[in-house]
């Protein structure tokens, strides 16, 4: 290749010195045919090994030579694409056990690959648009690969309605990207370690990868769910950065319908803050309740609402709130979504006194012991007391008897089981009077526990609707 390159330069110099301008082109074509065209198979056979070995200087020379031949670069583009796909997938497979469970490591791995391939294109091919396009096409294949990172999504409402389980495999990348954004935007130990600038930089990295995701709707669905939880639980690390993210999503061309709903969600929160200020000025129980009036079109994930028998202490607020709202907005109807609500209750036992952050369903279950703290209550009686549907009651009870972050659970039950589906109507539950927060091996007499976990945004049935 060096010989061919040198001879071509020499002949071009001689042509400019001795030939008429019209003859220089003919001379150049003749030299290219003899020095490059006649040896094309030999040259191209070396392309893939050079890419594999990252021999950027020799690739530069090959690119310079083959670009003189009509269609000569096309095989190089194919070799680059194949290399990126094979090397990218091999790298992801090698770290599959870690990255499929850790969204941070997954995103970092993808970004590391992208930078590696981008450096190759820059150093070997001078960021030629044809090679950048080949890089993008191949990296998109890596991002959307379904061999290891996949989830199952129902394909149609009709199939679901007929009870036919049809699913289309999808890359898990959109879900992991949304999880990573949630880690950055929610108050977490991870986000607290980062500066505002670092968080913004990492969010921009997500947007870079997102460009290559085929099913952007999946990312937006997960991102919207995470945002809903952050807004309802007031767990955002930086509200300004939250709104910035919405605009960035709009700028990179995410589905407009989703982005508009996200913007509407922030408007609802701001309006709700004003309503709360007005409501508190008119009630004696100033800080006991925080209402969020949410537009169903922007927030609702499923049409189904869950019936639950609320504790009287909570039930009393409903007519007061409704009356207040009707005075402000006559003609509008409020619908209460209790499965999206939460609160803080105080719990006292033999060990101490604790503040518990709970869902409304958890609150309804725990208040069943308010007047009988030492009694054992059967599953059937809890169902009658709370009026919760069976799937929701089982899930709620399991969160109170097997909360993963607690060494001492809030409720105790018998007989022992390993799955909430195994609860029977005769399973007995009772309050753990020895419940305590354990720190450094010692029970604490006071403290706060968040039992909300991952706030349930929809019922078991409407979760299937959400996946449409």
UniProtKB/TrEMBL annotation:
GO terms for molecular function: ubiquitin protein ligase binding. Pathway: Protein modification; protein ubiquitination. Pfam families: Cullin, Cullin_AB. The keyword Ubl conjugation applies. It comes from the Eukaryota. Belongs to the cullin family. GO terms for biological process: ubiquitin-dependent protein catabolic process. This is Cullin-5. Keywords: Isopeptide bond, Ubl conjugation, Ubl conjugation pathway. Residues 172-401 form the Cullin family profile domain.
């Amino acid at each position: 290749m060096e010989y061919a390159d040198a001879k071509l330069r020499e002949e071009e110099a001689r042509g400019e010195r001795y030939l008429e301008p019209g003859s220089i082109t003919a001379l150049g074509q003749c030299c290219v045919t003899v020095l490059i065209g006649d040896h094309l198979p030999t040259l191209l056979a070396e392309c893939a090994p050079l890419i594999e070995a990252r021999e950027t200087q020799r690739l530069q020379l090959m690119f310079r030579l083959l670009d003189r031949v009509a269609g000569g670069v096309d095989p190089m583009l194919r070799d680059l694409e194949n290399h990126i796909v094979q090397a990218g997938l091999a790298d992801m497979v090698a770290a599959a056990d870690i990255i499929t469970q850790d969204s941070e490591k997954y995103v970092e791995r993808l970004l590391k690959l992208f930078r590696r391939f981008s450096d190759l294109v820059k150093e070997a091919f001078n960021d030629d648009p044809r090679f950048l396009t080949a890089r993008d096409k191949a990296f998109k294949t890596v991002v959307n690969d379904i061999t290891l990172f996949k989830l199952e999504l129902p394909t149609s409402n009709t199939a679901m309605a007929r009870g036919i389980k049809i699913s289309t495999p999808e890359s898990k990348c959109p879900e992991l990207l949304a999880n990573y954004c949630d880690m950055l935007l929610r108050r977490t130990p991870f986000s607290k370690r980062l500066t505002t600038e670092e968080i913004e930089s990492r969010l921009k990295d997500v947007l870079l990868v997102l460009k290559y995701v085929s099913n952007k709707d999946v990312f937006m669905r997960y991102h919207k769910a995470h945002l809903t939880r952050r807004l309802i639980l007031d767990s955002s690390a930086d509200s300004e950065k939250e709104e910035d993210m919405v605009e960035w999503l709009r700028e990179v061309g995410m589905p407009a319908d989703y982005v508009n709903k996200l913007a509407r969600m922030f408007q609802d929160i701001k309006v709700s803050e004003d309503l709360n200020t007005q409501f508190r000025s008119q009630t004696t129980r100033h800080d006991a309740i925080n209402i969020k009036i949410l537009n169903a079109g922007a927030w609702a994930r499923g049409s189904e609402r869950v019936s639950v028998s609320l504790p009287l202490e909570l039930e009393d607020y409903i007519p007061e709130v409704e009356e207040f709202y009707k005075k402000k907005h006559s003609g509008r109807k409020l619908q209460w979504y209790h499965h999206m609500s939460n609160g803080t209750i105080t719990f006292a036992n033999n060990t101490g006194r604790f503040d518990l952050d709970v869902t409304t369903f958890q609150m309804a279950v725990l208040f069943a012991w308010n007047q009988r703290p030492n009694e054992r209550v059967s599953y059937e009686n809890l169902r009658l007391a709370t009026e919760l549907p069976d799937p929701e009651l089982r899930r709620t009870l399991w969160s109170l008897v097997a909360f993963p972050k607690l060494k001492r659970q809030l409720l105790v039950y018998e007989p022992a089981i390993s799955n909430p589906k195994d609860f029977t109507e005769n399973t007995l539950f009772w309050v753990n009077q020895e419940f305590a927060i354990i720190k450094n091996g010692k029970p604490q007499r006071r403290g706060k526990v968040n039992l909300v976990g991952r706030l349930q945004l929809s019922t078991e049935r409407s979760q299937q609707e959400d996946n449409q």
